Amino acid sequence: MVAKGLAEGLVGEEGFWGKDSRRWMRDFMVSEDGTSGHMIDTTRRLWPDRQGMYTCWNTKISARDSNYGTRIDYIMITSGLLPWVKGADIQPHIKGSDHCPVYVDLHDEIVDSTGATIQLQDVMAFKKDQ
User: Fold this and answer.
1) With the CA atoms of 125, 127, 128 and 130 taken in that order, what torsion angle do they form, in degrees rounded to the nearest 10?
2) What phi and psi values does residue 115 have, to the nearest 5 degrees?
3) pLDDT > 90? residue 25
4) How, if at all, do strands 69-70 and 117-119 pair?
5) What is the largest CA-CA distance in the chain?
6) Could you give the 3-state DSSP secondary structure of residue 40?
7) Burial class (CB in 10 A: 0-12, 13-18, 19+), 30
8) Helix residue ranges per DSSP H, the chain
9) What is the pLDDT of residue 66?
């Protein structure tokens, strides 16, 4: 795959984003400087410098063992949900398929700028007894 990309002139960071589907994904996500995109990658926001954060591996070549994979599983949120995010991560140690679980953990409540406590269940129109 790398040889094919190089043959097509896809080199470095710009080369990676040279594919239409990848460029669409980049433009869909909020950039690091916040000037573009609409959705926030929760895991990358919390782990901005982590390398090798892959969520899918080729099982035919046992790529998971050497972490030779891709990151194609995301939890995207709008900026309005960002204060609710307590944590987000991938779980590559959990096996069962060629993908690993990804998750986001949300606060049950937050305090807004006026000091009022807001319950997640109220914002999400969720009733506890359901």
Assistant:
1) -120
2) 95, 0
3) no
4) unpaired
5) 58
6) strand
7) buried
8) 2-7, 12-16, 20-28, 42-46, 63-66, 120-123
9) 94
d(CA 119, CA 107): 9
At 36, the amino acid letter reads S
Query: Could you tell me the CA-to-CA distances from 87 to 4, 8, 12, 106, 107 in Å, in that order?
Result: 37, 39, 31, 7, 9
How far is Cα 23 from Cα 16, in angstroms, rounded to an integer? 9
Q: Which residues have C-beta within 8 Å of that of residue 107, sequence separation ≥ 6?
A: 83, 84, 85, 86, 120
pLDDT tens-digit series, residues 46-101: 999 999 999 999 999 999 999 999 899 999 999 889 999 999 999 999 999 999 99
For the chain, report the end-to-end CA distance as a whole number of angstroms.
Answer: 48
Amino acid letter, residue 92:
P
Residue entry with tokens 């980049």:
26
- Distance in angstroms (rounded) separating the CA atoms of residues 99 and 54: 9
- Which residue's entry shows tokens 């949120």? 77
Percent of the chain at pLDDT exceeding 70: 84
